[in-house]
TrEMBL record:
Keywords: Signal. InterPro entries: BUG, Bug_dom1. Residues 1-20 form the signal peptide. It comes from Roseomonas alba. The keyword Signal applies. This is Tripartite tricarboxylate transporter substrate binding protein. Pfam families: TctC. Belongs to the UPF0065 (bug) family. The keyword Iron-sulfur does not apply. Gene3D superfamilies: Bordetella uptake gene, domain 1, Periplasmic binding protein-like II.
Amino acid sequence: MRRRTLPALAAGLSAAPALAQPLWPTRPVRVVVPFAPGGSTDVSTRLLAPRMQQNLGQPVVIENRAGAGGTIGSDAVAKAPADGSTFLMGTISTHVLAVGLYGPRLPYDPERDFVAVAPTVLVPICITVHPSLGVTDLAGLIALLKAHPGKYAYGTGGAGGSAHIGAVAFLNAIGAEATHVPYRGSGPMLTDMLAGQVAMCFDTPALIAPHHAAGRLRCLAVATATRSPLMPDVPTSAEAGLPGYRAYSWFGLFAPAGTPASIVTRMNQAVREAVLDPANRQRLEEQDLPPIMEGSPEQFAAFLRSELATWVPVVRASGATAD
């Protein structure tokens, strides 16, 4: 089993203090997923919900409220009553990348309008090429891109998403240029990748693994600290010769600002127990949604600040917008 640890959450962990049984919750708890059903955010939330419900003693109701890259559902929760009745399963897209994409048009502030409750999973991004490109490792791809600035195109599931920004960070790290081809989702992008219409792509191991195994695509590196169990032969970016390069998404639970600390602490404990549950961990791992094993509300808030400082400048420099 892999243990995923957010960079800012790795140290100084301590057990939550024992609390007297609080009155909350006295009614069902709603968790808004700001994306359509069936995506990784939705899947992981629904997987964790039964264990959270067992801990809380009340139903945990999942509500999908998709639109505008997750910002519609996020804004709804930001404006919901701060009474522990409503939470948001936020992501790097809703709470970090959206700041750079929307600028002053973003209808909420990720720090001011929310309380960080608990992180759940960290999803890796991998670098993949079509075999016709003729490269077999990351060093070969880097050499090719640097030798032919702007000649090659890469696909992602959409402009401004974690895969696109991860690609921008990769090109910045190696000092090369390539043309971005954004698609309306990973499915259409994968179709063109398999047909050789784009030379390379950035997406999750879960999407790429079957085609890598069949030789239809060649994954060169996974941009997180550990290898993917779906493609154990693929090195991490550090192992492939690019230490320090990371690309990923993450999910985590947020509450409206002003939610009482006792509720935030109780919900953090419920999420932690759900993530630590051995059966849940195994199911998450099998879908390449590796769980984040640590994270108090304070540590998750500190991690969010770090992520904003790291990625918002990259988004703005990329020129990507929400239009």
